[in-house]
Specification:
By secondary structure, the protein is mostly beta strands. It has one domain (4-97). The chain contains 1 helix and 8 strands, in the order βββαβββββ. It has one helix spanning 39-47; strands spanning 4-12, 15-26, 30-38, 53-59, 62-68, 70-74, 77-81, 96-97. Strand 2 and strand 3 form a beta hairpin. It is globular.
């Protein structure tokens, strides 16, 4: 069970600025108990609080559970990713941008 889900991101170039999160979701109606977090909040939640965070995305009018979000350090900089691709950028696949 996830502590929360990321369902949208605001990104400048290759770095996420803020994310829209929810505590729960319904497959038909989407995110519930919504709020906003900064990228640094997400990194701290994973690194320090050991929270379990997953992505959430909409496909064919149905909200689906995505991948677990991880923090990867590359050249001394921390990035949030669903897949370790070795690139110096944040990467949360299939996430809506706002």
């Amino acid at each position: 069970m996830a502590d929360y889900y990321i369902y949208a991101v605001h990104q400048e170039k290759d770095v996420i600025e803020t994310v829209k999160i929810c505590i729960s979701y319904n497959e038909a109606t989407g995110p519930e108990n919504k709020s906003l977090k900064t990228r640094q909040n997400v990194i701290s939640d994973i690194d320090e609080s050991k929270k379990s965070i997953f992505t959430l995305y909409k496909e064919s009018q149905v909200w689906k559970l995505g991948e677990m979000v991880k923090v990867k350090e590359i050249s001394g900089e921390k990035y949030i990713k669903t897949k370790a691709n070795g690139k110096r950028c944040d990467n949360l696949d299939n996430i809506e941008q706002y």
